Amino acid sequence: MSKKHHQKAIESLAQRITEHQEKIRLESEKSFPDEGLIKHWEKEIRAFDKAIQQARKRLGQ
Known about the structure:
Elements: H1 3-28, H2 35-59
Helix pairs in contact: 1-2
């Protein structure tokens, strides 16, 4: 895959992480936050972060 493709993937995943962090913040502010949902988003953030690291590795960063 091209360098441009990996860079775009990194940017997209970073945006998804930001979105999930905001979801977690909003859910945590509720009177009765859904802990299962928060754990799900945290797991997805870890997966996105791992994918970013792999893309950076392919780019030689």
